[in-house]
Amino acid sequence: MTTPVVAIAYHSGFGHTAVLAEAVRTGAAEAGATVHLINVAEITDAQWELLDASDAIVFGSPTYMGTASGAFHVFAEATSKRWFTRAWQDKIAAGFTNSASKSGDKLHTLQFFTVLAAQHGMHWVGLGAMPGWNSSTSSENDINRLGFFLGAGAQTDNDQGPEGVHKADIATAELLGRRVAEQTRIYVAGRASA
Ligand SMILES: Cc1cc2nc3c(=O)[nH]c(=O)nc-3n(C[C@H](O)[C@H](O)[C@H](O)COP(=O)(O)O)c2cc1C
C-alpha cells in the first residue's frame, strides 16, 4: 500500500499549538503516513527539502491578532520561492489553529491557510467532521466542539499552559491528521494509476 508523506509546518509561541501539531502527527502516523514535524520559526534547509518532498503539508499556527502568527507569516512569505517554481503544485494541504477565545477570529487564520495553499496550487482537505457541542444533548467534549469545517480549531484558556489544551481539541487534531493521511494515500495512488 502507498505510504503517504505528510509534513506539518507549524509555529507555536508558547507551546499550545505545538500540542496540536503533535496530535496531528499522531493521527497521521496512526493512519500509516511518514510524518515530518517542522517548526517554521527555526526551519532549516534540510526541512525545506522535506516539505518539497512531501505529498501533503498541514499548516498550523496560533491565531494572533486575528490571523496566523508573525513567525508563520514570515514562513509563508518565504514559500514564495516555491511559488515561483510551482514546487508545491498539486500537493494536499490542510490546517489547524488555536487561540484563547472560543472564536477569537480563528476562521480568518484557516482562511489564510487556504489562500496560501491555493496560491501554491495545492488541494485543500477540510476537517470532514460534523460540528459538535451545538445541541442540548451534546457537550464541550465532542469532536469538533467549536464547529469548524475548514480545518481543526482549538481553544485554550489564556491563563493555562500547554497542559491546558482541551482533550477534545487534541482528538480533533488527531482526526485531522488521520484524514489528511487517508486522503493523501488515495490521491497519490490515484495519480500513480492515472
Ligand atoms: C500577540 C498575541 C495575539 C493574540 N491574538 C489573539 C486573537 O486574535 N484571538 C484569540 O482568541 N487569542 C489571541 N491570542 C491568544 C493566543 O492565541 C493563545 O494564547 C494561544 O493559545 C497561543 O498559542 P501558542 O502557545 O501556540 O502560541 C493572542 C496572543 C498573543 C500573544
TrEMBL record:
Domain Flavodoxin-like: start-end pairs: 6-151
InterPro entries: Flavodoxin/NO_synth (IPR008254), Flavoprotein-like_sf (IPR029039), FMN_Rdtase-like_dom (IPR005025)
Pfam families: FMN_red
Coiled coil: none
Designated name of the protein: Flavodoxin family protein
Taxonomic classification: Bacteria, Bacillati, Actinomycetota, Actinomycetes, Kitasatosporales
